[in-house]
Known about the structure:
- β1 (67-72), α3 and β2 (97-100) form a beta-alpha-beta unit.
- The chain has helices spanning 12-16, 52-58, 78-93, 106-116, 136-142, 159-172, 186-197, and strands at 67-72, 97-100, 123-126, 147-149, 176-181, 201-206.
- The chain is of the alpha/beta class.
- The protein has one domain (40-162, 173-206): Rossmann fold (3-Layer(aba) Sandwich).
- α3 packs across α4 (106-116).
- The radius of gyration is 16 Å and the shape is globular.
- The relative contact order is 0.23.
Amino acid sequence: MEDAWRDEDENVASMFGSDEDSGSQIPTQAQSLVEGSGAVMVSELKPIADVDYLQELLAIQQQGPRSIGFFGTRNMGFMHQELIEILSYAMVITKNHIYTSGASGTNAAVIRGALRAEKPELLTVILPQSLEKQPPESQELLSKVQNVIEKPQNDHLPLIEASRLCNMDIISQVQQVICFAFHDSRLLMETCQEAKNLRKIVTLFYLD
């Protein structure tokens, strides 16, 4: 991770497009905020240009450590990944247990941040398929994670279907969901809706 923040145009996210633009880009996960009473509150951010949004994210945590599921697009700029890495680090050092998957983009940033916190027991990565199905760069990062759960029984499924099952598994194990997505990231939106249906606290950040 570089020492200095890199200047990026505030519209950097739009240069990458959404997860739906390419068949090879499978979205990983999703959300939007639900309190237990059923009242729905959605946190929404436009393309992130500075670190101010970290205050908004950290304000989510009001009631002590939780199990938190991180979901998000693979397609995001360098600054977004740095900020997510910092958020993940902050969540782990405050004793939250982080759950995520093993894709590039959001998931990789979450994993890097959690690893920096040096509390390996507070990071769980659930893969949609077996480890061998992950790209080489993901396998290298995952080799540093203590708790990796593989799903070889899903190897015969298309990745998007395996990812949908993986997302549901993560949701079932967490109290809160944080997601970074584009408005047309269909799998992420479905995941958020499922989390809301299960009365999870869900916060969705839009990148477009």
